[in-house]
Amino acid sequence: MVVQFKVGNYLSFKEVAVFSMVGYMPIKEHETSPFLSNVFYDPSEKIKLLKSSVLYGANGSGKSNLLSAMHFFRKFILTSSNQRQAGDQIKVLPFLLSSETEGLPSFFEMIFYIEDTRYRFGFETDNQNIHAEWLFALGKESSTKELKLFSRQFQQIQPTKHFKEGKGLEDKTRPNALFLSTVAQLNGNIATKILRWFQENFNVISGLENTTISYTVSKFQEDEDFRKIVIEFFKSIQIGFEELAILEEEALLDTTLAALPKVLPQEMDTILTQLKKLQETLRVAQEGKSEAKKVAIYTQHKKFDKAENFLRYETLDFNLESKGTQKIFSLLGPIFDTIQKGKVLVVDELDSRLHTLLTKELVKFFHLKINKKAQLIFASHDTNLLRKDIFRRDQIWFAEKNKLGATDLYSLVEYKVNQATVRNDASFEKDYLLGKYGAIPFLGNIQKFKTDFFDDPQEQEK
């Protein structure tokens, strides 16, 4: 579970920005429904954590940069020690629009839970070296004071007695690698647990490309319960097909060969014999190999006659389905896996190619009361989701660039309109589009642009 994430001097973030998944204690929105709750309590039972958060802002405001920072944070933890050599660049991009940040390191920090222990891990880095690194822990039964596990200033690394696994490994850490990653690579217990959490329980994906379709396909093939869930889900949203099947390349060839007539012309019979020999050769060659097999995805649609009577099922290639349908299928794997196993899923442009009502239902999966640990963080342009019947005020975040090109980050619950906090009964979408919360495109000169560019006489007369 994520509690908080900070980033500074990275892409469009000049100052350190704070993104929080901590629920605002005074408000009680979306907590009393028998089946839905937008919050759960952390293991200490002292703070509420949000099950989802949505991020809005104009194009180029920095929404994607926040999610990119989370992606970099995760990837660097997982790879800095085992995929980096001495002298390799770290490839972190600092804020470039101010002389104040020149030569300064980028800043990253996350607070998160693994089981009942809360960790706070962070680092500062430029393209060449780690400037600072730190790890603190707070157990469920501990006081409010964190235990320092280790701290670092350049190559001065100091593990404490609470991080004995790091003792003696200080000199084995390269200047461009994280100490945490180095200790994990050498089987340190706490460090390994943290790296495994980021590898298995914290995922950042793009909603613009179906990058997770192979994962969903694998889960669909291996998990019968998941297969049933996917089929029932598509039936429930009445998307058009009755069944979905995935065939491996070898099984597909078997099916094709079996469908051929028993009696064939001599030439065809010779070709068939050669195909079968080739299939057997390939099968033997693949034995013992673990490479992913190529698959084909098919859907079954009802076919009707002129009088609208059902005739039979027609099998179609999945690529003939809409881009939105393909995206939904791609997302279902990580979404259901996240909810079932209490993971964290970060998605850029979750709503891309999806109808508002469908995106709303996908989000509400996370708000089910049976969800005790899973979290969804996503960026969106769909203002139809800005509704008080979906989100609490502390779940809605905005990214906005100031006049210096730097991104500011703030939540609706902390925003002030005419010196007053935003009321729960406000029309979130309407007020946002009116500019009351900021974080919208500035289109003040768009009419002049259209008139000048298209040279419309009618527009000029207005």
Overview of this structure, please?
This protein is α+β, with helices and mostly antiparallel strands and 462 residues long. It is built from 12 helices and 20 strands. The strands form 5 sheets. The chain has a 7-stranded antiparallel sheet. α2 (179-185) crosses α3 (189-201).
Nutshell version of this structure?
By secondary structure, the protein is of the alpha+beta class. The chain contains twelve helices and 20 strands.
List keywords for this structure.
12 helices; alpha+beta; seven-stranded antiparallel beta sheet; six-stranded mixed beta sheet; 462 residues; globular
What can be said about the biggest beta sheet?
A: 7 strands, antiparallel
Instruction: Tell how many strands the DSSP assignment holds.
Output: 20
Number of helices: 12
Class by alpha and beta content: alpha+beta
Q: What average pLDDT do the residues reach? A: 88
**Dominant shape:** globular
In whole angstroms, the N-to-C terminal distance is: 56 Å
Strand percentage lies at 15-25%
**Rg over CA atoms:** 27 Å
Ranges where pLDDT stays below 50 over 5 or more residues in a row are none
- Helical fraction equals 25-40%
| Strand order in the sheet with the most strands | 2-1-6-7-8-9-10
